[in-house]
Write a structure and sequence with these properties.
- This protein folds into two domains: 125 residues, 50s Ribosomal Protein L17, Chain: A, CATH 3.90.1030.10; 42 residues, no CATH class.
- The chain contains four helices and nine strands.
- By secondary structure, it is an alpha+beta fold.
- A hairpin with a 2-residue loop joins strand 3 and strand 4.
- It is elongated, with a radius of gyration of 22 Å.
Length: 178
Amino acid sequence: MAMYRKLGKKSDQRMALLRNQVTQLLYHGKIETTEARAKEVRKIAEHLITLAVKEKDNFVEETVSAKVAKKDKDGKRIKEVVDGKKVTQYDVVDKKIKKDMPSRLHARRQMLKVLYPVVEVPEDAAGKKAGTKKIDLTGKLFEEYGTKYANRKGGYTRIIKIGERRGDGAMKVILELV
């Protein structure tokens, strides 16, 4: 018996498909796909959520000083002339940052091996680069899903059958996070 489903694809295509579906599942919370694909996606997604649950509190908060540019009322940087050159003025500000412990950093990198980067594009600026923002899915896994599923021992997803696909009769399902 095979260890995984081949899904009728070559290995690079299969991995790309599964990575994309796992990324969309964790970003949106549910996806619609075939039953065979859902069972494979479920394995990967539950492993990532388990990593997030284990390492959710494994960080240290540190205070660091950072240089931040001074800005005027319009949000433009304030510049002064020094030796005939325009130089931006800076303030020194203390910031609190979360520093991952080694095991959490390793878990984050394991997640990044699977997840694709997600960029959110506003509807009014479709097709334009301005206004887009990157979504930190690993941060979402640790902060949101890690705390949500902290008291649960596995079984983070649910498969709901919705009927056969019209063209080939494959069973369509909704895979969602519980």
